[in-house]
Amino acid sequence: MYSRTLCGLASLLLLATPLLRADEPAMAPVWKIADADSTVYLAGSVHLLREKDMPLPAVFDRVYAEVEELVFEIDMATLSEPESARKMRALGTLPDGGRLGDKLSTATMARIGVYLKKRGIPAGVFDTLTPGMVYLTIGSLEAARSGAKPHLGLEMVYFEKSLEDGKPSRGLETVAFQMSRFNDFEPALLEKLISESIDEAEDSPETFDAIVAAWRSGDEEALTELIVDQTEPNSQLREVLLTWRNRNWIPEIEKHLATDRDVMFLVGVGHLVGDDSVIDLLREKGYEVMQLAKGE
User: Fold this and answer.
1) Smaller CB count within 10 Å for the chain: N or C?
2) Rounded CA gap, 179 and 124, in Å?
3) Cis peptide, bond prior to residue 57, ω within 30 of zero
4) Which residues contact 111 (CB under 8 A, 6 or more apart)?
5) How far is CA 150 from each of CA 20, 93, 154, 155, 172, rounded to the nearest angstrom?
6) How many whole angstroms separate alpha carbon 226 and alpha carbon 67?
7) Model's pTM, two decimal places?
């Protein structure tokens, strides 16, 4: 749950990150694709980070300095708009009179009650939320419990830099679109995800540590195991959260390659590793995509 929430939307079992051998270069979670007059950098993000994860790897500053535009999963400028907050509340709330207990089994509702009590949260706080919002909220609560903060995540850091420097930015999707993806899930799948998120809650800090370590070292294999392989191949969860979106982003990347501008795409690192990742799909189309070493 935690790895899917962190790197699938908004943000997230535990596997040890392999140590680099002495003859292996230290890699960065950034890939590069270029043609005669433009370069696109595909930078893998962990959306929420902690004070202990600072400073950020220097490669991100180096790439940022080279590009003229940033592309995020969502338009960061819209996050503080009242209309975006209203849409998020509406999408995450059941229709008038709807109750969570009508959507989930008695056993799952009981587990949610135990979880809320353990976290010191008033009972019934989830009662009018959709099952998808409950799943996302548990992920957010556990991220916060681990010390993760949105303003430390790469998107917010580099969006604020872009404002200071006058660099344009845009988004591939809207917040409303991302949240609506959960509307496509079968009720049984959502119930399973909520139960798994509660089961895995106690391991959240250790899982976070493993993801950040793999991300810092640009370890594709470990990142794939920690994030992508937590969803079954061809499953509805992987298709909706990762594969389908990865395919949609390929034309956007090709559009930027057709210009004479250098651009950095900053997206969840789970979209850049494993089968049917953005990197995999670009290579299938014949593009040469190179992972950067830390010093590049």
Assistant:
1) C
2) 22
3) no
4) 195, 198
5) 30, 23, 9, 8, 19
6) 30
7) 0.87
